[in-house]
Amino acid sequence: MDITIRPARFRAPEETGEDDAEAVRRLVRALAQVQEAADYVTGSVDDLRRDGSGERPYFRAMIAERADGTAVGLAVYYFVYSTWAGRPKLYVEDLYVDGDLRGTGLGRRLMASLARVAIDHGCVKLDLSVKTDNKARDFYSRLGLTRSGTWLPYTVGGSDLESLASSG
């Protein structure tokens, strides 16, 4: 398999030149379609450029690409901090491999790349969340990831986030 994994490049929206923002957005939309959630993808290419570039980007990404430059896999991640461990953790926001390449080891290669990034940054863990009906749960288990005990992810957004912000 002639596929290379490399860090994604993002330029600031006001800059010119090539970057990976359009490929990342395309792969994020493909992931959302697989999860039957395409309507939830509202971020733009410029959003990715703004938040993925600069001295302190909000996120980073790894791109898997064919020799011709076609992006066929994606891992989006960022760092969080564990106050309990006193160390950073790497959180995987999105992991996607094009359908025709699933089962070829590309997903494992992307996860191994993320594990190396985590180790290089002194992370104590690599975390991610998976929907209960996601078929990739078996894949993550084969890689050694386990469900995090009794922890359940919670989220707040939209008008509920605004209500919470104005409540205190």
From TrEMBL:
Annotated keywords: Acyltransferase, Transferase
Signal peptide: none
CDD domains from the UniProt entry: NAT_SF
Source organism superkingdom: Bacteria
Pfam short name (any one): Acetyltransf_1
Gene3D superfamilies reported in the protein's UniProt record: 3.40.630.30
The N-acetyltransferase domain, residue ranges: 3-162
Listed InterPro entries: Acyl_CoA_acyltransferase, Diverse_Substrate_AcTransf, GNAT_dom
Family that this chain belongs to: Belongs to the acetyltransferase family.
This protein's name: Acetyltransferase (GNAT) family protein
Lineage: Bacteria, Pseudomonadati, Pseudomonadota, Alphaproteobacteria, Rhodospirillales
